[in-house]
Write a structure and sequence with these properties.
The protein is an alpha/beta fold. It folds into two domains: 7-57 and 127-256, Rossmann fold (3-Layer(aba) Sandwich), CATH 3.40.50.1000; 59-125, DNA polymerase, domain 1. It has helices spanning 59-72, 80-86, 91-99, 105-122, 132-141, 154-163, 186-196, 210-219, 233-237, 247-256; strands spanning 7-11, 14-18, 30-33, 46-49, 56-57, 127-128, 145-153, 173-176, 203-207, 222-226, 243-244. It has a six-stranded parallel β-sheet, sandwiched between helices.
Length: 259
């Protein structure tokens, strides 16, 4: 953890400037490009991690949020396998499938509110996915860099990674800024890589949903998908991207994966 002063360290092709840590990130971490020689072998040097369902084991909280919506709309509650079978982005389409009705803007506001109220009540019971801290430490210890990009809200995201003790593993942390969630990660990933000064050809995105694959494809990065979150293995495999059952296996595949 930080000693209260900013610190500067260099990992690979980017120079990382970390703000002092006082229980939360005062602002997103800055990444300033550093001039380096051309890379002859464009191997993986940076992982962009997804959070919910990937590094964070929160399936039970997600399912409670979904079932809070089911109860409100008088629909039978669902189990995790069913939710995985219908999960997609944009999330509004997903919930329209679940509820078998079109959602008005008012409905969508209500759905968003119900979900996050129920999810947040269980957030204190959510911890890191199995092996997450060791995987992050090993990747960093090998001289590589990594960052975190989530479609969850930025402020609670940064607070939680601080509480769980993994903030210092990331060169940059970006969460959603704004009142609503549920869109695609593609434009957020493009901005994340641009600000960090990262070459997409050296980046692998590790996530748990098909939208992660689409986001990686949109910027020319690679992707490894994990079965630990909200998507059935068969659905992940249909994307054509490598699929892993653990974070450690995901990193192994990330090193081997090519565009």
């Amino acid at each position: 953890m930080s000693n209260g002063r900013s610190r500067r360290e260099t990992r690979g092709p980017i120079e990382i400037v970390k703000n002092s840590w006082r229980g939360r990130l005062a602002r997103p971490l800055e990444c300033v490009p550093v001039t380096t020689g051309a890379m002859d072998d464009r191997t993986t040097t940076h992982i962009v991690w997804d959070w919910n369902g990937t590094l964070l084991a929160d399936n039970h909280a997600v399912l409670e949020g979904v079932n809070a919506i089911c109860r409100f709309y008088q629909r039978e509650e669902v189990d995790l396998d069913y939710w995985r079978s219908v999960f997609t982005r944009p999330l509004q389409v997903c919930y329209e499938r679940l509820l078998e009705r079109q959602l008005t803007d008012e409905d969508w506001t209500q759905v968003d509110k119900l979900y996050h109220e129920a999810y947040n009540q269980l957030l204190h019971t959510c911890g890191l996915a199995r092996g997450a801290e060791q995987v992050l430490a090993d990747w960093q210890g090998a001289g590589n860099s990594q960052s975190l990009l989530s479609m969850w809200f930025h402020d609670p995201l940064t607070e939680l990674i601080g509480r769980l003790g993994v903030a210092d593993f990331f060169s940059r942390v970006d969460g959603l800024v704004g009142p609503m969630s549920g869109g695609s990660k593609a434009e957020h990933l493009a901005r994340h890589l641009s600000v960090a000064g990262l070459d997409p050809a050296t980046v692998v995105l590790v996530g748990d949903v098909v939208d992660d694959a689409h986001a990686a494809e949109s910027v020319g990065a690679r992707c490894v998908l994990v079965t630990t979150g909200m998507t059935a293995r068969s659905t992940l495999e249909a994307t054509g991207h490598p699929v892993a059952d653990s974070l450690a296996d995901a990193v192994t595949l990330a090193v081997k994966t090519r565009v």
